Amino acid sequence: MPIQYAVTKKKELPKSLLEFQIEIPAEELAPHLRRVLEHLIRETELPGFRKGFVPEKMVRERVGELALWEKAAGEALSVALPEVCKAEMIDAIGHPSITVTTLAPGNPLRAAITIAQMPRFALPDYKEIAASANAKPREAPTVEEKEVDAIIAELRPARLHSGGKIRAEDGKDAVPLSDETAKQLGNFNSVAELRAAVSENLKRQKEEGVRQKRRAALLHELVSETKVELPDILIGSELARMEAELEGELKRLGATLEKYLAETKKTKEGLRAEMQPDAEKRARLHLLLSNIAGAEKVTAPPEQVEAEVKRILAEHAHAAKEAVRFFVETLLTNEKVIA
Predict the structure, then answer these.
(1) What is the rounded CA–CA span in Å between residue 164 and residue 152?
(2) How many whole angstroms separate alpha carbon 283 and alpha carbon 241?
(3) pTM of this prediction?
(4) Tens-place pLDDT, residues 34-64
(5) Which of 331, 318, 238 is nearest to 277 (CA)?
(6) Which of 38, 48, 136, 289 is the most exposed place for a label (fewest CB within 10 A)?
(7) Whole-angstrom Cα distance, residue 182 to residue 166?
C-alpha cells in the first residue's frame, strides 16, 4: 500500500552516491506500529499466558516503546524507499545506509539516506574505436615442424626424437614413427594424416590466441576511454567474484585459499589490494558493456538463455535459478555486444 512521504535536501556525492532526507508523517507510522504490535503479540509467550494471548500492555512494557517505534520506522522506510527510487528515478544498487534523525510518538519520522546508484556517464565513441582496432592488420599464425613433433611426443608416455623416432619411457627401445605407431595415437591411417591433424589443431589454437589478443586490446582501449567514477559496491562485488574464482581454481587443483596465502606469505587483505586494480577494470568493463547493450538494444537470445540455465542447473542443482539466469543473460548479452 502506498505511503505518504516527502524527499528533501538531495545531494550528489562522489562515487555515484546520492544523499537525501526523507520525512514520513506521524499518521503514516500508525498502521506500521499496529502491525509490529500484532506480530509481537502473536509471537510473545510469558509465564501464565499462552503464546498469542499476552496483553498488549505487557508486550509494550516488555519490548519498550522506543524499540516498537524503531521497528515501525524500519517497516515504513522499507515501504517508502522503493517508491522514492521509482519516483525520483534512482537506479539504486546495494543496500542504503539509513540514519534515523527524528523518531518520537506524534512526530514525523525523519531519516538521512545514502545510497549508491548506477553511474551515469557518456559512452566513448565505441564504434570508431572498434573500427580503428579492426582495421589493423591481422597476424597470420604459422605452425613449425618442431611444434608438431613436440605435440606428437606428448600424445603418449614417450619422447619423440628429431630423427622421427619414439623412445619408450625406459629409454631402451627406439621405434620409428610409422603408420602403425600413428594408428596407436588415434584414428589416423598414416603419419602424414597424424601430422596434418596436429598441425591443423595447432593452427586453430594460435588463431584463437590471436583473436583473444585482439579482443583484449580492443576492450582495453574501450575501458581506457570510459570516464566514470565507480561506486565502491561495484568494485567490491567484482573483488568478491575474483576471490570466488581463485578459490574455485585452487579447489580444482586440490588446494585451499588458506594454504595458498600461507605459501605465498600473503594476507587476505593484501591479496584483495593486489586484485583491486583488475577488479576496477572488470567493473568498468561490465558497466560499459551493459550501457552499450542498452544503447544498441542488444539482448541475449531467450532460447540460448533457457538452454544454458538448464545446463548449469543440471550440474549445480542447489544454485538459485534467478541468480543463474541473471549470470547467463549478462554473459550472453556481453558476448553479443563484443561480437
Answers:
(1) 10
(2) 11
(3) 0.74
(4) 999 989 888 888 888 888 888 888 888 888 8
(5) 238
(6) 48
(7) 11
